[in-house]
Amino acid sequence: MELDKKLKDLRTYHGLKQKELAKAINVSSSTISGYENGKNPDYNTLVKLANYFKVSVDYLLDNSPVKLSYDELNSEFQLSKRKYSSLKLIEMIKELDTSDQEAIIYILESFSEKIKYQKEIKIHMK
């Protein structure tokens, strides 16, 4: 996906108008419009956009399918009494043989589907 489309997708996903995003990163709304219509931002603005949306510059430039920034991937979260970062978990999975990796993916996908289903039920019960 091109930068212009990716930027517009991020902005609309976050429920922002061009004017709101422009104010947040200190540019004009016509500048945001230009970016969403194919004009390329300078490096400093690209970094501001990445930081604002909490994505990597590589993600914006379509060099990485990973939406999260390195800091977010490397940040720790607590599971029971252990702390993990997403990067550490990825490293652990990479060390497994293929069948074990596939089992982990299956389990994660199953839990993800369960969570989506539970969210849908909550929405319908309101």
Summed up, the domain count is 2
CATH H-level homologous superfamily name of the largest domain: lambda repressor-like DNA-binding domains
User: Biggest sheet, open or closed, and with what strands and sense?
Assistant: 2 strands, antiparallel
CATH topology of the largest domain: 434 Repressor (Amino-terminal Domain)
For the largest sheet, list the strands in their spatial order: 1-2
CATH architecture level-2 label of the largest domain: Orthogonal Bundle
Apparent shape = extended
Oligomer: single chain
Mean pLDDT figure: 83
Series of secondary-structure elements, N-terminal to C-terminal? HHHHHHEEHH
Poorly predicted residue ranges: none
Beta-strand percentage range: 5-15%
- Overall CATH class of the largest domain: Mainly Alpha
Helicity, as a percent range: 55-70%
Distance from first to last alpha carbon? 36 Å
Q: How many strands appear in the DSSP assignment?
A: 2
SS-based structural class?
mainly alpha
- Number of helical regions: 8
What would you say this structure looks like, in words?
Helix content is 67%, strand content 6%. It contains eight helices and two strands. With 126 residues, it is mainly alpha-helical. It folds into two domains: 3-64, lambda repressor-like DNA-binding domains (434 Repressor (Amino-terminal Domain), Orthogonal Bundle), CATH 1.10.260; 76-125. Helix 2 (18-25) packs across helix 3.
